[in-house]
Amino acid sequence: MNDTPRTFRIGAVTVTILVESSGPLLHPAELYPDSTPEIIAAQAGWMGPHLYDAASDRLVIAMQSYLLRSAGKTILVDTCVGDCKQRVRGEFDGAVWHWLSRLQEAGVEPEQVDIVLSTHLHVDHVGWHTRLEDGQWVPTFPNARYLFVKPEYAYWRSEIGKTALERTGDYIEDSVQPVFDAGLADLVETDHRIDAALRLVPAPGHTPGHACVEINSEGESAIITGDLLHHPLQCCFPKWSTRFCFDQNQSRATRLAFMKEHAELGTLLFPAHFPAPTAGRLSKVETSEDISYTYHFVDDEAD
Question: 47-58 b/e with 16+ CB inside 10 Å = b?
Fold first, then answer.
């Protein structure tokens, strides 16, 4: 696993990728219901060991956060799985990742973080919102304001949302509620602007209030896509929604519109789960059968 923090510069904004874990995790059919062994076999060559482990038939998935420095503020986007959490998935249950050491390696102590936000409230995006201290879950970033998109938070606090937590374990109770109890939470709109360079962009479907983070600074742009895309394989098959999508049809429509727009613009993308070097751009592949894209990784690190 390449867990060394990597930094990219978008105008006056820096984006540092903090990896919690990266490796073979999900069987293709577990993530994408439309996948078949024949399709995966046909794609295995270009995916190679970097993106797909043929021996275990698992896609390589990264859990990672984005550390942004913008307008004098230190901002965290998504906080991975977290340490010592009780989870249904065996790989996450009680795991210890030492992610905080990567944050510190990037030159930031938890007390120095000003803003924490999640593209959505799935288990692998809110874990480090809290940490275990004297047997209690407390906010990891005591001086930060934690931003929660209103419809997203409302869903996970509804009866339907609580039922959906049964397949993961109640991570809202241990990773989100303590932030509210501490008075550090702010509910924001889906198009909330953080500063002159950063704003949220609604991207519903994967979850009701899923949002991307758009960066525009000094004529340069990039987007932290959250779970709009999960793996480069999905670029080849953009109509594939994941098994974990709240509304697969809405997710598909959102993704297709997004990919069309940003392939044309050449926008630099930072997907939540693509392994290193993570950042890349889309290009459209012309076929007579269906829409398809190629994802081109880039490694243009800041000086």
Answer: beeebbbeeebb
CB of 148 within 8 A of CB of 185?
yes
**Residue 217 corresponds to which amino acid?**
S
Q: 66-96 pLDDT, tens per residue?
A: 999 999 999 999 999 999 999 999 999 999 9
Q: What is the length of the chain? A: 303
pTM tops 0.90, yes or no: yes
What is the b/e burial string over 102-122, where b = at least 16 CB atoms within 10 angstroms of the residue's CB? bbeebebebeebbbbbbbbbb
pLDDT at 230 over 80: yes
Burial grade of 14 (CB within 10 A; 0-12, 13-18, 19 or more): middle
Using the structure block, give the residue that is written with the tokens 């038939």: 57
Closest by CA position to 248, among listed 201, 184, 218, 204: 204
Q: Omega into 277 within 30° of 0, i.e. cis?
A: yes
Give 303's pLDDT tier (boundaries 50, 70, 90): very low
Please state whether beta strands 280-285 and 130-133 pair in parallel, antiparallel, or not at all (unpaired). unpaired
Taking CA atoms, 134 is separated from 131, 137, 138, 159, 171, in Å, by 10, 8, 9, 31, 19
Structure confidence at residue 302 (pLDDT): 56
CA distance to 21, 64, 132, per residue, from 4 (Å): 11, 11, 25
